[in-house]
Prior knowledge:
- With 357 residues, this protein is α/β, with parallel strands linked by helices.
- The protein has 2 domains: 2-133 and 340-356, Nucleotidyltransferase, domain 5; 153-338, ATPase, nucleotide binding domain (Nucleotidyltransferase, domain 5, 2-Layer Sandwich).
- It has helices spanning 22-39, 65-73, 82-95, 115-118, 124-127, 138-151, 154-157, 206-214, 218-227, 230-235, 241-246, 250-274, 284-289, 291-299, 310-315, 339-356, and strands spanning 2-5, 11-13, 46-51, 61-62, 100-105, 160-166, 170-176, 179-183, 279-283, 321-322, 331-334.
- The strands form 3 sheets. Strands 8-7-6-9-11-10 form a 6-stranded mixed β-sheet, with helices on both faces.
- Strand 1 and strand 2 (11-13) form a beta hairpin.
- The longest helix has 25 residues, at 250-274.
- The model has no long low-confidence stretch (mean pLDDT 93).
Amino acid sequence: IKIIKESSAKEIDEDLKVAGDSNxxxxxxxxxxxxxxxxxxxxxxxxxxxxxxGGDYKESIVFDDEVVKHLKSLIPFSPLHQPxxxxxxxxxxxxxxxxxQVATFDSAFHSTCDPISxxxxxxxxxxxxxxxxxxxxxxxxxxxxSKLPGYMSQKEANAKFIVAHLGGGATMCxxxxxxxxATSIGLTSMGGLPMATRPGDVxxxxxxxxxxxxxxxxxxxxxxxxxxxxxxxxSNISSDMAKLLKSDHPDAKLAVDIFVHRITLFAxxxxxxxxxxxxxxxxxxxxxxSPEIRQMVxxxxxxLGLELDLEKNNACRKRVEKISTKNSKVSIWVIPTDEEIxxxxxxxxxxxxxxxx
Length: 357
């Protein structure tokens, strides 16, 4: 796994043999980082952490007890990620009591979304408790938005874009003037597009039905939504898109088709939010590495003006490439994301600000 990047941007890869639960994995990984810094005689001055759900935090923030308390209160909204995100902070605090630590949020980039697009049609007694659409993968979208002006004119970069972050977790975002206007995912990290093991949008009454009519516990429903659905649940083969694309089993094909279908549905709704479309960006593990998925998606979006250069698409994996034809009304891009560099950027900026204070 990728552990760390040096200032030269060289990736350090190690095959860690980890036994036990996720907490053990986090601790062993962080121990590796500490050992590595000692071997390199690197003085650790700060640590930045990716936190999936930041609630109403609109930007990165220095950790303190109140921040931790608030982020722990959001665990029910992201049980698959939030506890383990916080474990890194807790571990470093135990090892280095005075280490400068920063929380960066996957939800913060979406704080610029239209309030209407953030709202559910629920009573104020619930929405006043913070029940609304937040959006995630914000660090990824922030990175993509920061890179667009480097690949085109500023005017073109400020235009109307849909960015599809497709991986084990999958979301989409409407971006204009390099800011988020709307996103496919909402209150929790379960909704929106189908993912590796999560179903994406399902009828809200399904959970009630499973508990009332089939006697399921809330824990069993949660397990279904977070660990047994999505690509894995539909195919009953794998949560790995690459394996499903190679399989000739009809359920593997069904899982892929549902995934692509939902992407194209959200592309339509996000285009409506933008009131037009100038560019479409693929990113994330699947988006960067699967020409097949990109081709299937674009084929269903020709009505929006997307036209794919098949040769460029088939040759492109994990590199920046414009893969649309010259005649395409909408530019199509593959742009590899880098969430880690955004975490480092926000952490360094807050560290420098603290030093000057």
